[in-house]
Automatic annotation (TrEMBL):
Annotated TM spans: 6-24
Source organism: Pustulibacterium marinum
Top-level taxon: Bacteria
Biological process annotations from GO: cell division
UniProt keyword annotations, A-Z: Cell cycle, Cell division, Membrane, Transmembrane, Transmembrane helix
Name the UniProt record assigns to this protein: Cell division protein FtsQ
Length: 238
């Protein structure tokens, strides 16, 4: 019996420990939340406000202090936030101190389509509604977006967003029956791109033309720059 006594004491101690832990955890789960804290990851230009996120998190409760930890479904809250048209991803958790915290990653618009209806194209090629809180400074796309051309337009505006020269000089894309046109920021000519095939090579030709014309101080002499044809740049003077 004496040999078993140390083992019995260990078992009793473990039972007491887990009982106290379960009791403490149960009390902790029944405690009300203290506050809500929202953090926006990345770009701080807000297409959805902290107040709007708070309302989605607390939902029908008038005050966060009315909500207990055990009454929360964190996965459901993440789905609710992620289903918002301005949100790309959301992580929701409860801190040790009892605060409901949300880290929100917004969708990123690359271009704004203008016309009868106006909306953005985001960095995944999906259509994104405009926000009442912030207007993104992105190139404008003129023309109708369809299921047939959406991927092509996305490919072009993504290239603009990823290239420093294009970001500085291109302010718009025009959808036309003959293909796509690029609008320059400060130069009085349009660039005929054609379709989106060989896009990087066409952009390389545009850069070479631009640098040469800039050096020759002849940029203001052109009305059209055509990149459609092979390794040529066909220019039309005013």
């Amino acid at each position: 019996m004496k040999k078993l006594k140390p083992y019995i004491q260990i078992v009793v101690a473990l039972v007491l420990f887990f009982s106290l832990f379960a009791f403490s955890d149960g009390r902790n789960q029944r405690r009300n939340l203290k506050d809500v804290e929202v953090t926006f990851a990345g770009d701080q230009n807000l297409f959805i406000t902290e107040e709007a996120v708070n309302k989605l998190l607390v939902q029908s409760h008038e005050n966060v202090t009315n909500v207990t930890k055990e009454g929360l479904d964190l996965n459901k809250l993440e789905r609710i936030l992620s289903n918002n048209q301005m949100v790309k991803k959301a992580d929701v958790y409860v801190s040790v101190s009892g605060e409901l915290k949300a880290i929100v990653q917004q969708r990123k618009p690359l271009a704004r389509v203008v016309g009868k209806s106006s909306f953005y194209i985001d960095d995944e090629g999906e259509l994104m509604p405009l926000s009442q809180y912030h207007s993104a400074r992105v190139p404008l796309v003129e023309g109708k977006i369809t299921a047939d051309n959406q991927k092509s337009v996305f490919k072009i505006v993504r290239e603009i967003a990823q290239d420093d020269f294009l970001k500085e000089n291109i302010v718009g894309v025009k959808i036309a029956p003959k293909g796509y046109f690029l609008r320059m920021r400060s130069d009085d000519f349009e660039v005929m791109l054609g379709d989106e095939t060989n896009l990087k090579y066409k952009i390389k030709k545009l850069k070479a033309f631009y640098q040469k014309a800039l050096k020759d101080k002849s940029l203001d002499q052109y009305s059209w720059v055509n990149l459609k044809y092979g390794n040529q740049v066909v220019c039309t003077k005013k």
